[in-house]
């Protein structure tokens, strides 16, 4: 919270000789005066947790404070350990921004003191609104710069955006960065912007810049020292993302490629639940490349290369045999163990697969094509509207 708001809280507490605090609309503590009453358990808990205790929140919800007039005196509630309070809803132009609280103690506030509380609420509202307007303007500018940096075809436009972004943030001449792309968790009711705002508050390793792009959230951070791949995507998941993929870039000027890699990682995460809801591009092996080829091909339910194989009744069984063998780099014994079949059985299935496809597992080019086609088939099996792999 800004020093100006804290000064208003401290000045009011000094004038009243009573504790004062400021909470946002979700009862999270924004600012508070000196803690001088160890007997007030609720205030102590709110300061320690930076939010009102759950039982207090439930009680406050029943008071309809958002619809209250200028001042509200709340009665004590011994069951939850809260004494009398005076609350001033903090509004600007009819928009509720926060709640200003005073603990009056044994003597209620007189008219002069109540007038001072109302005046402080007005001053806090003006300050919060200025900060909100300034933050909104800055976010709009950052969103425009991110759009140019990550989406523009013209290299000079991307370079200009990188230069302006560095200047506004005071970043190094050419910092490395991490780019993530995320979708919102199904059924959450959130918008990508909600996830972005929460992630921004939770990211403690420097600036987190974000913009909403259609139904996606696109995020960029400067790479922190000792960064562990997947940390940004994990933060997005905790902030409400359903799936998130991330990728590193050695510089802002190459962030556009990282955004593309992050999109590929997102496709993989969304299509293959066993790989996790979030992932770094670097941890997914060949899956992101397969995802890029599959998407470029229009997300077919089954690749043309595998059509003759998968049209057979035993096609999925043969495809799984090839897949397991490729995963084991041609080690048939290990692949047979993975499939829980005898080696002779696996050899027969591989021979049939080669016969049907006309491809050989001893030819490098054929192995590469089969590997990508099988991964595309697996991606299609979990894609919305795709086949079940059979």
Helix content: 40-55%
Q: Determine the structural class based on helices, strands and strand pairing.
A: alpha+beta
Q: Rough shape?
A: elongated
Q: State the end-to-end distance.
A: 57 Å
| CATH-defined fold name of the largest domain | Beta-Lactamase
Low-confidence runs (pLDDT<50, min 5 residues)?
A: 382-390
Radius of gyration, in angstroms, nearest whole number: 29 Å
Q: What is the strand content? A: 15-25%
Main sheet: strand order: 2-1-5-4-3
In N-to-C order, the SSE pattern is HEEHHEEEHHEHEEHEHEHHHHHH
Number of domains: 3
Number of helices: 14
Number of strands: 10
CATH architecture of the largest domain: 2-Layer Sandwich
CATH class call of the largest domain: Alpha Beta
The CATH H-level homologous superfamily of the largest domain = GAF domain
For the sheet with most strands, the description reads: 5 strands, antiparallel
Mean pLDDT over the full residue set? 88
């Amino acid at each position: 919270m800004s020093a100006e708001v804290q000064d208003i809280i401290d000045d009011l507490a000094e004038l009243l000789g009573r504790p004062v605090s400021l909470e946002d609309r979700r009862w999270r503590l924004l600012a508070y005066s000196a803690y001088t009453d160890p007997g007030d358990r609720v205030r102590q808990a709110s300061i320690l947790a930076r939010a009102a205790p759950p039982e207090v929140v439930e009680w406050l919800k029943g008071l309809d404070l958002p619809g209250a007039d200028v001042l509200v005196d709340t009665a004590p509630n011994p069951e939850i350990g809260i004494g009398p309070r005076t609350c001033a809803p903090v509004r600007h132009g009819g928009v509720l921004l926060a709640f200003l609280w005073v603990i009056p103690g044994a003597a209620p506030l007189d008219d002069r003191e109540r007038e001072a509380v109302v005046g402080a609420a007005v001053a806090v509202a003006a300050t919060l609104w200025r900060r909100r307007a300034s933050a909104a303007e800055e976010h709009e500018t950052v969103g425009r710069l991110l759009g140019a940096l990550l989406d523009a075809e013209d290299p000079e436009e991307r370079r200009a955006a990188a230069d302006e972004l560095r200047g506004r943030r005071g970043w190094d001449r050419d910092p490395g960065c991490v780019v993530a792309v995320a979708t919102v968790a199904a059924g959450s009711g959130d918008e990508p912007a909600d996830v972005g705002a929460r992630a921004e508050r939770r990211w403690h390793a420097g600036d987190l810049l974000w913009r909403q792009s259609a139904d996606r959230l696109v995020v960029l951070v400067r790479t922190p020292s000792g960064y562990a791949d997947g940390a940004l995507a994990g933060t997005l998941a905790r902030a409400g993302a359903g799936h998130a993929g991330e990728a590193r870039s050695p510089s802002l000027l190459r962030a556009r490629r990282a955004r593309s890699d992050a999109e590929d990682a997102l496709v993989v995460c969304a299509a293959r639940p066993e790989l996790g809801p979030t992932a770094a591009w670097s941890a997914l092996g060949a899956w992101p490349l397969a995802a890029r080829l599959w998407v470029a091909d229009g997300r077919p339910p089954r690749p043309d290369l595998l059509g003759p194989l998968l049209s057979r009744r035993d096609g999925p069984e043969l495809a799984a045999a090839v897949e397991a063998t490729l995963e084991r780099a041609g080690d048939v014994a290990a692949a047979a163990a993975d499939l829980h079949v005898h080696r002779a059985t696996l050899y027969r299935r591989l021979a049939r697969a080669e016969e049907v496809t006309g491809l050989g597992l001893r030819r490098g080019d054929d192995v590469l094509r089969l590997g990508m086609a099988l991964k595309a088939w697996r991606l299609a099996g979990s894609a919305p509207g795709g086949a079940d792999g059979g």
